């Protein structure tokens, strides 16, 4: 019973590199979300998806790309990483009208 | 003005005491309300939903005041294990699963 997993858990990359963070859930939840968490800002929504092949922007989408070809996977790509994207990234999933369950997070450092 | 505002704390409270947190939200049409708990360097987890009539779960009581646009969380007989950051979370828009998170209130229970 894995629930929702994220990989990698820790990543250090250089400015300008492309980075992909993976998110996988085993519940077949319709909705999936990507957040970033920074001191003083709390959790901010980057992108979300209501179903496979349906994605939409959240509060802070610039510099990020998502896709959802399968219900269970929701990868987040930083096309050209910048230092301002150093953060903790959380993936979450839910069914409509129910609580969101979060993955363990990915700590990303951009040098 | 932030959409969801919380006192960041920290609250340092002796074991066994009662502690209360408040949270205000900006959108009067907000649909649903939650308290999440986040332990240090971990993912957020749902503590409880907040219903219009108020609700209780063991030592925890949540209240909603729609007229004043605030929600509260009361913890009675606090335990060391209650030490965490408490996130006020609001679903602001009907038919939308997006959640807006407060920056959190940090609570430390002192033995």
Provide a concise account of the structure shown.
Chain A is mainly beta and 111 residues long.
Report on the structure:
- The complex is a heterodimer of chains A (111) and B (111).
- With 111 residues, chain A is mostly beta strands.
- Chain A is 0% helix and 52% strand.
- In chain A, the strands form two sheets. In chain A, strands 2, 4, 5, 6, 9, 10 and 11 form a seven-stranded mixed β-sheet that branches. In chain A, strands 1-3-8-7 form a four-stranded antiparallel β-sheet, with no helix packed on it.
- The radius of gyration of chain A is 13 Å and the shape is globular.
- In chain B, the strands form two sheets. In chain B, strands 2, 4, 5, 9, 10 and 11 form a six-stranded mixed β-sheet that branches.
- In chain B, 0% of the residues lie in helices and 52% in strands.
- Chain B starts with a strand and ends with a strand.
- In chain B, β9 and β10 form a beta hairpin.
- Chain B is mainly beta and 111 residues long.
- The chains are: A mainly beta (111), B mainly beta (111).
- At the A-B interface, β4 and β5 of A face β5 of B.
Describe the main β-sheet of chain B briefly: 6 strands, mixed
Helix-strand string of chain B: EEEEEEEEEEE
Quaternary state of the chains: heterodimer
Distance between the termini of chain A: 36 Å
- SSE-based structural type of chain A: mainly beta
Helix content of chain B: under 10%
Number of strands of chain B: 11
Q: Tell me the span between the first and last alpha carbons of chain B.
A: 37 Å
Biggest interface: A-B, 22 and 16 residues
User: What fraction of residues of chain A sit in β-strands?
Assistant: over 45%
Specify the helix fraction band of chain A: under 10%
Number of helices of chain A: 0
Mean pLDDT of chain A: 95
* Largest sheet: number of strands, sense, barrel closure of chain A: 7 strands, mixed
Mean pLDDT of chain B: 92
């Amino acid at each position: 019973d894995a629930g929702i997993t994220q990989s990698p858990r820790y990543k250090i990359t250089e400015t300008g590199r492309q980075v992909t963070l993976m998110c996988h859930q085993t519940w077949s939840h319709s909705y999936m979300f990507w957040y970033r968490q920074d001191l003083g800002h709390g959790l901010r929504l980057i992108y979300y998806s209501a179903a496979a092949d349906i994605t939409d922007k959240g509060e802070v989408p610039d510099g990020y790309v998502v896709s959802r070809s399968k219900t269970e996977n929701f990868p987040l790509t930083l096309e050209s990483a910048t230092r301002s994207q150093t953060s903790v990234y959380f993936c979450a999933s839910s069914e409509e009208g129910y609580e969101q369950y979060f993955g363990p997070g990915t700590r990303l450092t951009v040098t | 003005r932030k959409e969801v505002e919380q006192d960041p704390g920290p609250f340092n409270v002796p074991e066994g005491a009662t502690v209360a947190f408040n949270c205000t939200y900006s959108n009067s049409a907000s649909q649903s309300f939650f308290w999440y708990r986040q332990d240090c360097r971990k993912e957020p987890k749902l503590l409880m939903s907040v219903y219009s009539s108020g609700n209780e779960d063991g030592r925890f009581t949540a209240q909603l005041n729609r007229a004043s646009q605030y929600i509260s969380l009361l913890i009675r007989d606090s335990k060391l294990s209650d030490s965490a950051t408490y996130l006020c979370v609001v679903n602001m828009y009907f038919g939308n699963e997006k959640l807006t998170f407060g920056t959190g209130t940090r609570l430390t229970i002192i033995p």
